[in-house]
Amino acid sequence: MPPKRLLLIDGYSLLFRSFYATRYMSTSDGRPTNALYGFTSMVFSLIGQFQPDCIVVALDAHAKTFRHEEFEAYKGTRKETPPELVEQLLGSRELIEALGIPMIEMPGFEADDVVGTLSKQAEENGYHTVIITGDLDALQLVDHCVTVVTPKQGVSEVSTYDPDAVKARYGFDPEYIPDYKALVGDTSDNIPGVPGIGDKSASKLIQEYGTVENIMAKIGEVEEKFRKKLEPALEQIPKSKWLATIVRQVPLEFNFNPFRIDETHLERAEKLLVQLEFKSHAKRFPVLFARYQEGGAGGIGNAPTEIVAEAIEPDLKGEIRSVAEWQKISFGRKYGIFFAASTAQSSMFDTDETSGRAYLAIGKEVWQAPAALGKEIFLDNPASAIGHDVKSLYKKAELNLTAPGMDTMIAAYVLQSGRSNYTVGDIIQGYLDTAHPGTAEQIAVGLSMVYPVMTDRVKAEDQTRILNDIELPLIPILAEMEGHGIRLSTEFLVDMSHSLEEQIGLSKAKIFELAGQEFLIASPKQLGEVLFEKMEIPGGKKTKTGWATGAEILQEIEHPIAAEVQHFRELSKLKSTYSDSLPRMVAEDGRIHTSFNQTVAATGRLSSNEPNLQNIPIRTELGRQIRKAFIAGEGYSLASLDYSQIELRLLAHLCEDENLVKAFNDRVDVHTVTAALMFNLEQSEVSKEQRRLAKMLNYAVLYGVTDFGLAQQLGAGFDTKAAKALIEQYFERFPTVKKFTESVVETARSKSFTTTLMGRRRYFPDIHNSNRAVRQYAERQAMNAPIQGAASDLVKMAMIDVRKKLGSAQTRMLLQVHDELVFELKDGEDSLLSPVKHLMEEAMPISVPIEVDAKVGENWSEMKPISLA
Fold first, then answer.
1. What is the dihedral of CA 149, 152, 157, 161, to 10 degrees?
2. What is the DSSP letter of 3?
3. Measured in whole angstroms, how far is the alpha carbon of residue 333 from the centre of its chain?
4. Dihedrals φ, ψ of 558, to 5°?
5. SS3 for 606?
6. The Cα angle at residue 758 between residues 755 and 761, in degrees rounded to 5
């Protein structure tokens, strides 16, 4: 019989983590709730996952502890708790009490000590303890009877630590965590460490000597480079270990009876959850806590369907295919390929890629089959597929450009583009309002159940066109582009790296000469001290951690050292981020294969990673050199087709400003037109500086830039007051633009979302935030959303049309970066560029002409403009 399970929650630790990891939320009457929401979500999820017999929340008492008495500076570096969190910490007690969960606190001790003591007593009472905390100090408690679970990303993903997991992370057993803390210190608790001893050094010392007491006893044997650092701290080390050690003998009593909740608590909890406006939690609570009701039994944490495994022989290919014919097919990258039945029966086909096996489930029974068969069936008919993150499946076999019938990850993004994650478990849990699925089998069944729910939601929110006509057809195209990759000249980058190294050395020498001393330029602390203390350069700004040395500060400093430091930083970033890193990403085919992401940017834009091609520098001549490394393959050249001023053209269409519309229709420079109207000049009289100001204003309005932000962009001679005057003058000259931006914000306030020309929604939950800065940031985002979202829709629609046009030609689409599509143009297929350009310009008809600039060359930097009909 398995041991009973105790779920032991470090209350305030989890609340703090939830506050900073969960976007700001408040009730309709302005009460902050994000910490309480994140806390409740995680507690409910973990109760569903672990199905504990007993539940306890440990809290910190509102008093100093025995550690403060011995070490007054203990936790002295902690920042003041934000008022919005203080209010929720107080409210958390009411919430926990309403849920009927016991709370324990002990004056003079920390919640860690209560957790440590209860976990020890739990073992004596026949329990295995699962500790939920955001504090890694608790890892010292891990043993064969104690597991620690910590939030990994936000509050939805967790890391689980048993003794092996702790050793894998640190290199030593859990019992040495206090020794580790004594060596490296803990800034959050203000526990002093040994200066110069970091994570790796501490791990090495502990692996060699064990406890810090043993290290101190054998200090003469310790390697000299460590001994020099340890000896001055020998008196402090034992005190630091004492501070970091969790007490497990707190004088407290707990009966460890199984957790039960009565009808009164059920009613109170549901009422409070409704008052907090946690509607999904209020619905889920009675089901989740059913098994704990006094006199009742329930189904907490039960899988949506009971699954009993029964193996079949792996060669029954025909039988599996006959089943697939009447089923919807579904795929999820984390767990493999699933078949979800279109009938009342639930079926799935789950590929375990590590073992090369697949699982076919019909009803409650599961059969095994070869993994390759699942991929083969998927590619036979992707249009019948229901899936989660299916793009990787397209890349693993001969490409089929047919769009999947459904991808729940993409559907969730279309419905909520501002989510922090789109994991399959969270999607199932959220849309089905059920416990978080804990196994592949539960996820497979959950996918078949969530499909109709999400389809109905997409339809109800008028997002069917965005999902079915734009996002889903784009999936196989992106998979194809990732598979092609782009050729990279590693030789060019190696040479560039050597050149950058030389330039960095020269820049460093120049900085030292100007400063009159050598120092660590990359250290903001040392740089600030040199600039504003030793050299006494005016314009410095002090922060809590030292002098500010960001680009915005250096740009204001007239001394030549500031410009040289910025040059040094540019050289260093180019070398480390690009010339050194990109060659390591080249595959065996000599090409670099980025990953395109559909669910990262809330605007609807695509993003990329490994490498992030959106960040390849283009603003400086030196930065543009990086693009020379991206080259055409043998028998090909590179072609770039780039939308010209697309967001301004969309603004002109949406606001119907006659001057902007006329400028684009007459094909004259829109920034010159803007400058002429701004400064009451003829277009021929506009100076370069006036055009520069007009261009910045045009884009400042697009992105809702603040007075301060515009002043920073305009540079020397412009303060916030002058920038504000320019913005006001712009809106006087272009009243229809002002009316449009105000109407967009008003729509966001009334509906909480904006829409693009194609109907894509973007939600703004902070548009009514009581915090003025947060609210205004949401308003600026809302102002730009219809424009940037429309640009996103246009590019994606063009990509779909263009790929159809390319057909079986050897010319291929490689990259999508900002408003640009990059192609590898096969020699002899130049005639394709003209229809491709036409398709890009006609993908979304608007009231002003859309223009695409075309260039061709051997690399991405050195490209010559070409004229296309």
1. -30
2. P
3. 18
4. -85, -15
5. coil
6. 30
What is the DSSP track for 783-843? Answer: HHHHHHHHHHHHHHHHHHHHHHHHTT-S-EEEEEETTEEEEEEETT-GGGHHHHHHHHHHS
Considering the chain, what is the average pLDDT of its residues? 82
| Long-range Cβ contacts of 460-464 (<8 Å, 24+ apart) | 461/415, 461/761, 462/759, 462/761, 463/414, 463/415, 463/759, 463/760, 463/761
Residue 222's identity, in one-letter code, is V
List the one residue out of 368, 348, 366 whose CA is nearest residue 358: 368
Query: What distance in Å separates the CA atoms of residue 496 and residue 571, rounded to the nearest whole number?
Result: 11
Q: Are 832 and 607 in contact (CB under 8 A)?
A: no
Give the integer Cα–Cα distance in Å for 837 and 824.
15
Q: What is the mean pLDDT of residues 164-181?
A: 90
For residues 390 and 479, the answer to whether their CB atoms sit within 8 Å is no
Q: CA-to-CA distance for 631 and 825, rounded, in angstroms?
A: 12
Q: Which of 250-259, 656-665, 827-836 has the highest mean pLDDT?
A: 827-836
- Secondary structure (3-state) at 65: coil
Number of H helices, E strands in the chain: 35, 28
d(CA 648, CA 200): 52
Nearest to 481 by CA among 811, 788, 843, 793: 811
In this predicted model, what pLDDT tens digit does every residue of 99-149 receive, in sequence order? Answer: 888 888 888 788 888 898 898 898 888 889 999 988 888 899 998 889 999
**Mean pLDDT of all residues in 425-454:** 72
**Taking Cα atoms as reference points, which of 617, 675, 580 lies closest to residue 861?**
617
Let me know the angle formed at the C-alpha of 20 by 431 and 115, rounded to the nearest 5 degrees: 90
The count of residues in the chain is 869
Query: How many beta carbons lie within 10 A of that of residue 413, not counting itself?
Result: 23
DSSP secondary structure, 67-136, as one string:
HHHH-TTTTTTPPPPPHHHHHHHHHHHHHHHHTT--EE--TTS-HHHHHHHHHHHHHHTTEEEEEE-S-G
**What is the DSSP secondary-structure string of 267-311?**
HHHHHHHHHTT-HHHHHHHHHHTGGGBTT----TT--SS--EE--
512 within 8 A of 616, measured Cβ to Cβ: no
CA distances (Å), origin 265, targets 15, 57, 840 = 22, 16, 61
Other Cβ atoms less than 10 A from the Cβ of 846: the count is 17
4 CB contacts (<8 Å, ≥6 apart)?
53, 54, 126, 127, 128, 258
